[in-house]
Every structure is written in structure tokens, then in C-alpha cells.
Amino acid sequence: MNNATKKLLLMKKRKKKISSITAYDASFARVAEQANIDFILVGDSLGMVIQGCDNTHKVTVEEMVYHIKCVEKGVKNTPIMADLPRVALKNKKTAYSSVKKILKAGASIIKIEYQDKSFGLIEYLLKKKITVCCHLGLKPQFIKSSRDIKVHGKTNKSAKEIIAQADLLNSAGVSMILLECVDSKVAKFISKKVDIPVIGIGSGQHTDGQISVLYDLIGISKKIPSFAKNYLKNKNSVYSALKNYNQDVKK
Ligand code: KIV
After folding, report:
1. Rounded distance from Cα 167 to ligand 1 centre (Å)
2. CB 175 within 8 A of CB 132
3. Tens digits of per-residue pLDDT, 118-144?
4. Atom number of ligand 1 nearest to Cα 43
5. CATH numbers and ranges of domains, the chain
6. Average pLDDT, the chain
7. Are strands 176-180 and 209-212 parallel, antiparallel or unpaired?
8. Taking CB atoms and a 6 Å cutoff, what residues make up the pocket around ligand 1?
9. Which residue of 50, 141, 180 sits with most ligand 1 atoms within 8 Å of its CB, as the best mutation to test the pocket?
10. Nearest 5°: CA angle at 65, between 212 and 20?
11. Could you tell me which of 206, 199, 208 has the C-alpha nearest to residue 180?
């Protein structure tokens, strides 16, 4: 846990909702900070929304570093979380050296799309005092076909699996959990059960905070998920879109 996540933890304790969006460049990052968004994610979604690929699978560590540096130039004190891209997950050594590059570029929280087989890696990074957020539910890095794009935690078995993962990671010492497309009742349960902040996307209203892909909420992504709201519709600026999004989360 570092200062950024300590502040988010305090927000959870005080029942203040946490807002986050993705950004990939200095200008959007600057507007996000002006709109008081609590933290920015440099997501490997950049593979889709910036590079125009069909998925996030081939985003490199160097590309992540480039965009983190751009975002870092746009903010004064908004914490930056960044994805550890799929290509960095080959082994612990590659993962750790990639994490170091990402932190050096300006991120302070590393997000990892979690699979049970990567628990050893998470423990390893935690021992190295890395601040980690684990991404559960729908994990874009591991989508093989459109059948994998669904709400997770709808069956008893799948709900128990996600709850057990969240529990384990909370006890292991990760600083935050991100739930993507998780059944809202399960997301609510997890948010109450664990003491670290739980941030949701497409997982209902009851998580400790919300995250959105910026280009979804201003309506310009190629494929906009059904749960995403277009905050720019009938509004006149990116700033007012982010401000309205922030107010919605806080409510
Ligand atoms: O890469 C990304 O932008 C993400 C969000 C979908 C949370 O992981």
C-alpha cells in the first residue's frame, strides 16, 4: 500500500465513492484531474481505443511506458494506475522487470488481470513492496472468443470462485480489486466483505467506486459496451462530460 491507495482506502472507510477513468495522453489526463477524478488508469485498452486492434493481447511494455509518460506529464497529483500487459506475464522475472519500467514511467499502482495460476506472481510482487490491484471477472487479456464476453458470477459456482479470489487477494495484501462485468449482487457482497477498495465496471452501483474507459463515456469507442453511458451526448465539452461522470459516481 502506498500513499495513493491509502487515500482510496480512507475513502472506502468514509463511504466516499471513488471515481476513475482511463487516459492515454497528457491532455485528457489534465482534464480528468481538473474534473477531480480520483485516479487515472493507463489501461492496456489502449490496444483497442488508440491502436485500433481487436483486443489488448499484443500491447507491449514499451507502449504502456510511452502512454504512462504522456499521462504523467498531464497531471500534478492524480495517482496513475497502469496495466501490466499480457506479454509481461511470461515469468516472474519478466513481470518484475516490466513492473519496474512501468513504475519508473510514473505509475504508482500496478493492475494485473488475475488468474489463479498467477497467485505466486502476486505474492512475489507484494514481497517486493509493489502496490497491486487485481482485476477479476471479465479479463480482456484472456478473452478467447466472444463467448467469454459475459457477466461473471451469475451461477453459484462462478460467484463462489470470484468471492474466493477476492478474499484470498485481500488477505495476501493487494491494495485494490477491480471487478469487470461481475453480477451486481456478487460485486456488492465482495465490496462489503473485503476491507480494500473495490472498483467496478459493468458490475452495478454498489462497489466502492467506478471506472470507465474514457472513449466509451465520450461515445467514440468502436464497440461501446451496453453498460457504458455516453456522458457527452447533448453536452458541450469533454470537461463537462467528466464532471458529470464524477458527480454521478459520487452520488
Ligand atoms: O484496460 C482497461 O482500460 C481496463 C478497464 C476496462 C478497466 O482494464
Report:
1. 22
2. yes
3. 999 999 999 999 999 999 999 999 998
4. 1
5. 3-250 (3.20.20.60)
6. 95
7. unpaired
8. 22, 41, 43-45, 83, 135, 178, 180, 201, 211, 213
9. 180
10. 20
11. 199
Q: Which of 178, 179, 217 to mutate to test the pocket of ligand 1 (most atoms within 8 A of CB)?
A: 178
The region that residue 4 occupies, defined by phi over 0 for left and psi between -120 and 50 for alpha, beta otherwise, is alpha
Catalytic amino acids? Answer: 180
pLDDT reported for residue 198? 98
Neighbours of 62 (CB within 10 A): 12
Residue 112 sits at φ, ψ, to 5 deg, of -125, 125
| CA–CA separation, 151 and 1 (whole Å) | 30
| 43 C-alpha to ligand 1 centroid (Å) | 5
Percent of the chain residues past pLDDT 70, beyond the cut = 100
CA distances from 154 to 39, 151, 160, 162, 185 (A): 29, 7, 10, 10, 9
pTM value surpassing 0.90: yes
